[in-house]
Automatic annotation (TrEMBL):
Bilayer-crossing regions: none
Protein name in UniProt: HTH cro/C1-type domain-containing protein
Alphabetized Pfam families for the sequence: HTH_3, MBF1
Entry similarity comment: Belongs to the MBF1 family.
SUPFAM superfamilies: lambda repressor-like DNA-binding domains
Length: 144
């Protein structure tokens, strides 16, 4: 059984005030909140953004254009025809597809395809893996 207090019972007559949480800035920007404020006649602050909604792009400054011209990237080395053909020939002799070779060197099939098409920038690590799998020397022939 619950025990009751033996002292005098008093009541607390202090008023308890419940307040709503303050509205957050994020909630004030919500379109629903803005429409509600407009309907009730509350003040709504509007700010016009500079060049908002226009597709115009400012012309780059002359200094930026000069900087771009001076720091133009240099053409990178590409696979030579010799190396491309050596990879393809060795792969076909071993009766492998590009996907199988890629799987064996732990790379994407796209990598092998780029090497055979000559679009890849030579990576010594990838060439070393291909040399091991195909049993052909490839790394002494890259220059262009």
């Amino acid at each position: 059984m619950p025990s009751r207090t033996t002292g005098a019972i008093t009541q607390d007559w202090e008023p308890v005030v419940l307040r709503k949480a303050k509205t957050k800035v994020k909630d004030l920007r919500d379109p629903k909140a803005v429409n509600q404020a407009l309907r009730t006649g509350a003040m709504v602050q509007t700010i016009k953004k500079f060049d908002a909604g226009s597709n115009k792009k400012a012309a780059p400054a002359v200094n930026v254009r000069k900087l771009d011209d001076e720091t133009e990237p240099v053409a990178r080395d590409r696979m030579t025809t010799e190396v491309r053909q050596a990879i393809q020939k060795a792969r076909l002799e071993k009766k492998m597809s590009q996907a199988e070779l890629a799987k064996r060197i732990n790379a994407q099939p796209k990598v092998v395809q780029e090497y055979e098409n000559g679009k890849a920038v030579p990576n010594q690590a990838v060439l070393a893996k291909m040399e091991k799998v195909l049993g052909v020397k490839l790394r002494g022939r890259i220059a262009k």
